[in-house]
Every structure is written in C-alpha cells, then in structure tokens.
Specification:
By secondary structure, the protein is α/β, with parallel strands linked by helices. Among the domains are: 87 residues, Alpha-Beta Plaits (2-Layer Sandwich), CATH 3.30.70; 85 residues, DHBP synthase; 165 residues, DHBP synthase, CATH 3.90.870; 179 residues, Nucleotidyltransferase, domain 5 (2-Layer Sandwich). The strands form five sheets. Strands 6, 7, 8, 9, 10, 11, 12, 13, 14, 15 and 16 form an eleven-stranded mixed β-sheet that branches. Strands 28-29-25-24-23-30-31 form a seven-stranded mixed β-sheet, sandwiched between helices. α15 crosses α20 and α20 runs antiparallel to α21. It starts with a strand and ends with a helix. The structure holds zinc ion (2 copies) and fe (iii) ion (FE).
Length: 759
C-alpha cells in the first residue's frame, strides 16, 4: 500500500441536480477514500485522503464516466497533504449564490422501467415513478434552488419508504426531488366529458375508451395530449373536424423501437434520437407497407414518431394499443393546454374523456420535433427534453441580455455568463393566449435564471408583438434595445452554435422576414458574422398580391410569378384556365397597379408559387403545406436533375423567371409533375452554388452556413450540402436549435451580445 495523500478536486459544468454527489460518494467507497463532497456556486468540490494511485483512479473515473445527466466542462486536481478524514461525507451546501442550471425533463430510465413492470416491486405500474436519473424537472420547478419545496411536488409529503430512499446517499433516489410512490405520490383520475370521475381503474378505463375510438385528453409531462386510435379513418376524421385541423400531420407514440420499425424506416441516427433521454418526435420515412392510414399525415411520406417517455405512457402502450396518435392538446395555433381546470373548458369540444392527475405542471412544454438529413440531426421544434439546457456561447464580459425572438414559432432567449437559455416553444404570437404565455414565460425565465438584462434584442419588424414588447421592456428596465434583421439572426444562430467568428456565406431561405429596404426578404445570400452582414445577393423580388393573404392563398403567388414571367395572364395552362375569372382579374389588377402588393424575395413564396402552378395546393391549411406537397411530389432525391434556366445579374440578383417559363412549357407538354418538382429543387441548388462560387472567387470565403425554414425541406438541404461540399465548401447547418424561426432568438442573442461587448 502506497503513502497516504490528500487531494482537492473540482468539477464544473452541469454537476448539480444530476446525482453527482451520491455518485462521488459511491466512487469514494469503491476507491476506499475518506473525505467530503459538496456543492458550491462554482460547481462540485471534493476533498479526499487515500492512496495516491486510488486518488488518481478515482479522479479519472469520475472525469471519464460521470453520471449520465452531467456534463463536465472543467476539472481540477491538486495533490496535497492528507487532512485526516475519518469517513466520507456529503456535506450540506453552503448558501448557494448565483444559480444552478436547471435540468430539462428526462425520459424514464431503464432502472425505473424495470421496477414499474416488476409485480413484486412497490412501484409496480405506478405511473409517476422516477429517480435521480429520470423524471420531470423543468415542468415541475417553481423556483430555484431545485429543491422539492420549490417544485409542484411540494404538496406530496414523502412516505417513510420514499424519505429513506431520498436521504440515503447510496440510493439512486438520493435527493431525487420528484421521488414518489403509490402510497405518497400523485394519482391518476379518469374523467368523463363533463369532468365527472369514472369509477374504474383509470388506465384500464382509458384503454377501453381508446379502443372504442374515443379521443382521450391525457395529461403528460409538459401538458395534455389528445390520444386516439390511428387505424380508423372515421375516428381520425372526427378529431380533424373537432380540432379544425384538416391536414396537418399528427404525431404518434409507439410502444418501442421494434414496433416503430414495423411502420417506418429507421436509420442509425434516427434510432439514437428515438431512444435518447430527450425523447423527441422523430420524422421518419414510412415503410412502403406502413399500416398507418394516410389521413394521419396526408401530405407527406414521413411520420412523426416518438417512444414513451413517462411510466404512464409505457404502461398505456404496453397494456393498450401498440401505437396511438398523440397530438398536442390545443386549439389550432393556441398554446398547449396544461392545467386540469383549463382542459375541461378548452378541450370540451374535442375530448371525450380526460386522464388527469393531481401533480401540477409548472409551465407548458410541447414535445420536441427532430429530423435527420444525411447524418445531420436537425431540430424542428426545440422544447421538452432540451429546454432549458444552456447553449454555451462566446462572451468576453459575461454580459446579460434578453432576445425577444420573432413572431412565428416564437422562442425567446436569455444570455448570462456565456450561456444562452432558449425558452420552450411559445408558438405564433398571433392570439391573446400565446401572447399571455409569452409574457409569463419571459417573467418566469428572468426570475428562474436570476437574469438582469443589460440590453434587449428584437427583430426589425416594427409590428411584431415581440418587437413591441421588447421596446416596452427596454423602457421599463431603462436599457438599450437593438434591432436585428431576421435573416442575419438565422445565420447567426448557426454561428453561435458552432462558435464561428469569421465571415461566412450565409444562405437564408425561408418564408418571411422584414428587410432593411422594408421589403419582405426570404431568399437571401448574405456575407455575415455575428456583428454585421452584407446582403450580397437575393432572389428576384416579385409582388405578393394581397400582402399577408398571399401566404395562405398561395395561388396568388403563382399568378404573380406568371405575370412577372410572361407580362400577361393569358396563358394556356390548366392553372389559369381553371382559375375563377373574376378573382384572376382582381389579382392581376393588384399586381399591375401595385395595390397592396409588397415585394418579396422569399424562397418560401417561390415554393408556394410552383406548388400552386402544378395544381398541388392552392390555399394552405397549415404553415408550409405548399412546399411540403411539392417535396412529396419530387420524392426522395439523391442526385441533381438537369437545371431549368435562371440568370444572375451584376447585383447578384438570382432571377427565376426563366425557370417559370420553362415550367409552363413543361406543363403544356404534360411533363410529369414529379420531374418538374425535382428539376425545380435542383435549379435552386444550381443557382445557389453559382453564387457561392462567385463569393469564393471574390472574397475567398469557404464557409457556408444554411439556415431558415426552407431547410426543413430534405431534398433542398441534402442536395445543397452534398454539392457544396463537392465544390470544396465547408457547410454548416443548425443542429442545437431549429433552422426555422424557433432558432431566431439565439441568433438575435449572439448578435446583441457581440454589439454590447464591443462597446
Ligand atoms: Zn429512473
Ligand atoms: Zn412514497
Ligand atoms: Fe425565418
């Protein structure tokens, strides 16, 4: 046995509230060390006495295999004289200043799952089972520090058994704040449509109703789902009618991975996402023999699947059907319903029954949505499971600020100490309830993260609610406000994620964003860094007859592109022949006279125009439907087709009018619309590569950044990445935040931070 030494060890990062101290305790036992472990505002501090080799092995073990939920950013060890400890102890925290990061909600772990399905366990079939490694966090926390009394679990005093687990340092429920069991914890209740208790085992009753084709509102982690059986079109149609959601895809929850693979093709990265502790919805390609009826997701070859992430979900899907539609319980664009009392009123016309429980949800949190393109995992919606995990960003002075986010798919973002805290999905700020959720979400985050912003960052659009509220906040707090251009923010969101500081070629393709020239941008080639940008090139701008109306009635965009390309609307194709004469005249006049017809260079509107021109969609029922059906028409593309014509002028304006001419010719020749769609996708890629080559020649920039809602289109994303790489470019796309407007707040934040830290 070697000489006894002492050591001071420190770990920083996500090391609190993740079972780190009990883990250290167990490791100390293993390596026969004496000493202490404690939390401090600077992370975890360990002091030990023991053999030199043991101390080193102990340090290495923790560093290399920490508890699953922890992330070690920094570690430190100093060997010194032994202090003479008699045993190993977890020392109570000093009064902690600052804040400790709050963990996202975590899917049920394997250990807990084993107990839930073990008939001899005291938690057999208990739907609220959890431990230090899993369970609710973000959705139950009411204040910090993260302690049971500061969560919605405070109203459930622990029974003796739970308490002894909670207090035992070597138990895996040591300090598991939501710890509960059937004796002391939350309980399920099944209500009928009027809110009267159905006297039956709640889970069995729920399954019975689902099997009868009923819609059951089920309270989960971050809010209610509407659950129903997917195989009966009558049942699905009824929900579509009640929810006023005629076509938008519904997500599904499926028993396990092998069951999922009966319905969809699942690649390695997709499998990893499905099984991850974040448990997002993953968009997966349907198998050719997939038994899920088209009505569940009529416009696309992809299904949004997720695996169960709470014991309740596991029990339901093992005892009941192996797959269920589980769609967010809300009315069209309103926020998720998450309180028992609101469920009964807000969902009264939708749900036939309610499976509720008496554990309150502190704040709503939608399911997250992801997709994989090539090997890139892309978040489409970043919410449950991911929020409020910080994204590290470069900060010289540790400044604090708040970025208000955009109008659609809103999230907001706080920055503090070089960390960006992006909010859960708030949604479109177009209705009163979303605005309420937005305001209370901001108050909540400011308080929870003890954030005192030195600046407010907003979009440039003067009429966005988020901009107006940002100005209000800046007045109230007497701090400056910065306005950031929408597409600059999109590109900067990638720069923040990847820590890129130099100039890049920023390709921002999306629907709408207020431009510096007060037109609507959306097909943009920027040269950008986190401070400023130059609009190098863009799509030739066309009119949006009727303004906002043309976003929904996408046939207006087709008319606009036709007029721009032919200077007349007397064109012999079905799209024009079938058009209502009076409406066509009216729209034509608006375009010619420029009445209520703002200019746009939007990529999304170009997709809409072609989709309508091919007769695939004329009025969208949900966001991006035109582009989604156009992509489905193309099918999966792995190579470029021959390009249509386009031109690029001296100001780098990419003019797609020649392409519209070509498409009209093809329509006249009855060319298959799937080929037209493939050539259309390809043309955008060719034109973009041309622009990138030109920038590389002129400015020697090799890094290309892709962001914007259009990159939810797999063909566009896949082809652009593939062919840009082939040209020798380094290509970057969002992975930690969505490329759509859900990621804009991060971009705003990093631009704001660069500005204030420069001054
Ligand atoms: Zn667990
Ligand atoms: Zn208990
Ligand atoms: Fe956008």
């Amino acid at each position: 046995m070697g000489k006894k030494v002492g050591a001071l060890i420190k770990f920083r990062g996500i090391v609190q509230g993740v079972g780190f101290r009990p883990f250290v305790y167990r490791m100390a036992q293993k390596y026969k060390l004496k000493g202490t472990v404690k939390n401090s505002s600077k992370g975890v501090i360990i002091e030990v006495d023991g053999g030199l080799e043991d101390v080193k092995a102990f340090y290495k073990h923790i560093k290399e295999n920490p508890p699953v939920l922890s992330v070690i950013d920094e570690s430190y060890i100093e060997i010194k004289k032994a202090s003479g400890f008699k045993d190993f102890e977890i020392v109570k925290s000093e009064k902690e200043e600052g804040f400790t990061p709050i963990s996202p909600d975590i899917a049920t772990c394997d250990d807990c799952l084993r107990e839930v399905f073990d008939p001899s366990d005291r938690r057999y079939l208990y739907p609220f089972t959890n431990c230090t490694n899993c369970g609710p966090r973000f959705t139950i926390i009411e204040d910090i520090p993260y302690d049971r009394k500061n969560t919605t679990m405070h109203k459930f005093p622990m029974c003796d058994d739970c308490r002894s687990e909670y207090e035992d340092p070597i138990n895996r429920r040591y300090h598991a704040q939501p710890n509960a069991c059937p004796v002391c914890g939350p309980q399920l209740i099944l209500w009928n449509s009027e809110g009267k208790v159905i006297e039956e085992d709640p889970i069995e009753g729920c399954i019975r109703l689902l099997e009868k084709g009923k819609v059951v509102a089920i309270k989960g982690l971050g809010g209610f789902h509407l659950a129903l059986y997917p195989f009966d079109d009558k049942v699905v149609k009824r929900l579509r009618d009640r929810k006023k959601r005629p076509a938008k895809p519904f997500a599904l929850m499926v028993r396990d991975l092998s069951t999922a693979s009966n319905y969809c093709n699942i690649g390695k990265s997709e499998e990893k996402l499905l099984l991850s502790r974040e448990r997002p919805i993953v968009l997966l390609e349907r198998k050719s023999n997939c038994a899920i009826p088209p009505l569940v997701a009529p416009d696309t070859d992809f299904l949004g699947l997720m695996l169960p992430y709470t014991p309740l979900h596991h029990i339901l899907l093992r005892k009941g059907p192996e797959i269920l539609i589980m769609t967010s319980a809300n009315l069209s664009e309103e926020p998720l319903v998450y309180r028992n009392e609101n469920a009964l009123t807000d969902l009264s016309r939708i749900a036939d029954a309610y499976l509720v429980n008496n554990r309150d949800i502190a704040r709503p949190c939608d399911d997250s949505v992801t997709m994989v393109v090539d090997e890139n995992s892309i978040l489409i919606r970043r919410s449950r499971g991911y929020v409020p995990k910080a994204i590290p960003i470069k900060s010289k002075k540790g400044s604090q600020l708040i970025a208000m986010g955009p109008f659609e798919k809103n999230t907001f973002c706080l920055v503090k100490d070089g960390r960006a805290f992006i909010s859960h999905h708030i949604g479109d700020l177009g209705n009163e309830k979303s605005v309420e959720a937005y305001i209370s979400g901001i108050e909540d985050f400011l308080r929870m993260f003890r954030c005192e912003p030195q600046a407010v960052v907003c979009d440039m659009h003067p009429d966005y609610y988020s901009t107006r509220y940002g100005i209000e906040l800046s007045n109230k707090m007497k701090i400056p406000v910065y306005n950031v251009q929408h597409h600059h923010a999109h590109i900067a969101s990638v720069l923040a994620e990847k820590g890129i500081e130099e100039d890049v070629i920023g390709i921002a393709f999306d629907g709408t964003g207020f431009g510096q020239d007060e037109t609507i941008w959306g097909g943009e080639y920027l040269i950008a860094n986190t401070e400023s940008f130059e609009r190098y090139g863009y799509f030739y701008s066309v009119k949006m007859p009727g303004g906002e109306k043309a976003i929904r009635e996408i046939d207006r965009m087709a008319v606009s592109y036709l007029y721009e390309s032919f200077n007349s609307l007397d064109i012999d194709i079905p799209f024009i022949k079938n058009y209502d004469k009076k409406r066509l005249d009216l729209i034509g006049k608006m375009i010619i006279n420029g009445i209520n017809s703002p200019l746009t260079s939007s990529c999304g509107r170009l997709f809409d125009a072609v989709s309508a021109l091919l007769g695939l969609c004329s009025v969208v029922q949900y966001d991006a439907q035109g582009a989604i059906v156009l992509e489905k028409k193309a099918g999966k593309m792995s190579e470029l087709e021959a390009s249509y014509d386009y031109s690029i002028n001296g100001n780098n304006v990419v003019d797609f009018r020649p392409m519209i001419n070509n498409i009209v010719c093809d329509i006249k020749k009855s060319v298959d619309s799937s080929l037209i769609s493939r050539r259309f996708h390809s043309t955008i890629v060719y034109a973009t590569i041309d622009i990138c080559r030109k920038i590389k020649r002129e400015r020697s920039i090799k890094k290309v950044v892709l962001s914007g809602g259009s990159f939810q289109n797999r063909n566009l994303t896949y082809l652009l990445i593939k062919y840009l790489k082939r040209e020798g470019f380094d290509v970057f796309i969002n992975s930690l935040v969505p490329p759509n407007d859900g990621g804009v707040s991060l971009g705003q934040a990093v631009i704001g931070l660069t500005k204030i830290e420069k001054e």
